[in-house]
Amino acid sequence: MKKHIKNNVYWVGKNDWELRQFHGYEYSTNRGSTYNSYLIKEEKTVLIDTVFHPFSKEFIDNLASEIDLKSIDYIVANHAEIDHSGALVDLMKLIPDTPIYCTANAVKSLKGHFHQDWNFKTVKTGEKLPLGNGKELIFIEAPMLHWPDSMFCYLTGDNILFSNDAFGQHFCSEQIFNDLVNQEELYAEAIKYYANILTPFSPLVINKINEFVGLNLPLDIICTSHGVIWRDNPLQIVNKYVEWASNYQENQITLIYDTMYNGTRSIAEHIAKGINLIDSNITIKVFNAAINDKNDIVTEIFKSKAVLVGSPTVNKGIMSPLGGLLELIKGLGFKKKKAATFGCYGWHCTSTKIIEDKLKDAGFEIIMEPITSNWIPTNEVLEKSVEYGKQFINKLNNK
Ligand code: FEO
User: What's the pTM?
Assistant: First the structure.
């Protein structure tokens, strides 16, 4: 079923309430997601993006119940990733000559995915596509937001920016507008999406926002490719992106550990106590990496000014759930965050050095030597852990 957005613009996407994992198993989607596709029916009819390939038939059947598919004059592929281009293969079998407007990089990606030589029309920033009735689409390349091929397009007259992945959220709702959904849930998903997907591209986010502002185009609505459409004060999410892209930090410290017999866990809890004794205003969050959602932990790291990470030594290494999390963090390129490490060991201590090296690789600054415990921590070690927490927060606050 299509949903009306403004004048002759409609949502024709797919709500995926069931989705719980995305990018394979790299990203948890606990509130599902949506694949937003848009139909513009001016003198020319334009389809912007499609849906994830498992929903290809449903999408095309729905679209065909709304319009004669042969009346689609243009397809715009803002992004080649298959959650947006997945229905193209089946759709192009029905309308094989329809031109697909996309970036040169999208041609490479689409050919790489589908091995088809469709009627591609490559576009660059500033190029325009007249739609009749005095309206046109203006294309704006947006490389790495989220892939090299990504682009935005802007509909004049209606003042709508189709931003694809940017400003999106993996958040499923029948109510497609930002003002109609629970704001806490919306922003929880928006910041998780930014932290886990867009953090590595923060400098590009700032540049792209500045470039768009420089175009002096009025902005009434942002139509993203996932989650809700920003029609109520769309600049609110743009301003949030500027904040998030600028080495975002809240007054928060996050402790992350893995543990075998609760020794490393005890150290974490006592460090947390020490931090709280010195600074009762700072938010402290503590996570066992093995039992918490890794993407939620990443979101908490994104919000933090410092992290403390611990693992017992296992086979000269660290516990594998924590290892996976550190690998995930490495790719995100966090900046200006401080760190320290801790852990238990039996006959050989290597875990803290391994974690330190991984945190340094991920861009964290190590500000203290590790605290360790030979076997299960004694009361003396736990008291030292409290002191360690005090010293850590003092060092962080330069006291
Ligand atoms: Fe929603 Fe980069 O795809």
Answer: 0.96
